[in-house]
Amino acid sequence: MAKKRADKRPQTESKKICKAIHQHSSGKIDGEDMNRLLDLAQSCMVVCNYVYQRYGGIKSLDKLYPGYTVQNEMTASGLREKLNLPTVYFYPAVFNALREIKTQWAHVKRNIYAAINENERFTKEERHYLRFVVKVSGCFENIVNGKPAQVPEEMRQKYESIVADLQADQQERIRSLNRYLCRQVRKKLSKMHTEKFLYFSVWERGYRYGESKNKEGQNCHGIFLTTKERRKRLFIPLTDTNQYGGMLDIKLKPEKNSVEIIASVFADIREHKDYINEIGISLGLWDMITTSTGHVWGVEFGRMQKELYDYGVCERQTYGRKSGAPPRKKYTVRREKMEETLKNYINREINRMFAGEKPAKIYMAKLPQNAGGNGAGGYILRVWKKGYVTERLKWKCRQNGIEIVEVLGKGLSTECSVCGASCEIQSKDRYEDFKCKNCGYEEDRKVNAAKNALNRGKSGRQLNKVFPQDKSSG
């Protein structure tokens, strides 16, 4: 059987999409074999924490990109030999930890941008300077390490122009702004550490698919994984006969004596010639998706979330009164089952919406990052699966070649989709119709909001085009 390549990026990226494929072990894994896997995972965790400690700070910023310096230093550290960890596990652990560090620095920079924008004491020129030095590679690294800013030659003239705009007391203002930048980094940069050792990665040469006999003497398909023992591989029977290439992620489940294997493969984007419509959508707490055509998809969404919320409240009242009491196993299993049922329902309803609406382009409002507040109503908003809905919606749009565009969301539900007048809504009844005091237009509130999303998208009031990717970069 031919392998499905997962390690090579396709030449035409706009026509492909990367998706995760899950494989599961068949039957229960022997206790001794599970201990071998746990030993590998434990060693990978040690490697990750070593990388976090050594390269997660300010002084190692210049080593993160592209990462070869870290790789060479980790090779010379002797940690791999000390742990007796094969290279097929050691280097994926190094690069996974390095990726997490880069991700944290991206979050730090994004939070610094937000702090700069919110600080009313800064002038326009000071904000411009701070944004510039944070964005320019090499400049930011030097400043946070207390060194003079080094700007690439091609950007030197731009830097000097920004500094000149600061006018009087330039050097003192620059030192003050640089100190502010250092304080923000110290405030927002956290020390990374992990205690999770049930998840690790393996390179392609560390495994092979094949067949072997199980305890009953029957031939079964599975995967042979490299172990710490020289020239000895561990066989894990699988429930399917598929074979994948590239780096695999191994997730251990010792409580069930099972293993989950996650492979990344590139699949063709589906083409739907009959998907020609443009629609606006409005996401809701009760009705999942309302479209500008007047259709509602996911009418059971709110009820299922309410059941999940009520179950959590009941558990807290009957068992969670004790301070620090761990959740009961029965409660955890049932809650996970309810959440999985809700997620399946979300995915099914999105698929039904695509089949019914046949959209080529979808306009939707960008939702706020934080929803909810105090009290029971606030808790319902916090457990609202809006993040999962938008995530799956964007993913399925990309999978089906549908363009999704985010539009300005301010006043979306209070604006009349016919005349554009703003009408204050007093009641929060989910079924109340929108009534325009200016032109008399009446419509369901969510449908009116979806029509506003469509109107704003077509008129260019867009935040960004999320999908498809820019073809010029392919």
Short summary of the structure?
By secondary structure, the chain is of the alpha+beta class. The protein is 43% helix and 18% strand.
Strand order of the largest sheet: 10-9-8-11-12-15
**Rg to the nearest angstrom?**
27 Å
As a percent range, the share of helical residues equals 40-55%
Number of helical segments with 4 or more residues: 13
What class would the helix/strand composition place it in?
Answer: alpha+beta
Q: What's the order of the H and E elements? A: EHHHHHHHHEEEEEEEEEHHEHHEEEHE
Q: Estimate the strand proportion.
A: 15-25%
Largest sheet: 6 strands, mixed
Globular, elongated, flat, extended or rod-shaped: what is the shape?
A: flat
Chain-averaged pLDDT: 85
Number of strands: 15
* Poorly predicted sequence stretches spanning 5 or more consecutive residues: 1-13, 369-380, 465-474
Distance between the termini: 31 Å
Looking at how many chains there are and whether they match, the oligomeric state comes to single chain
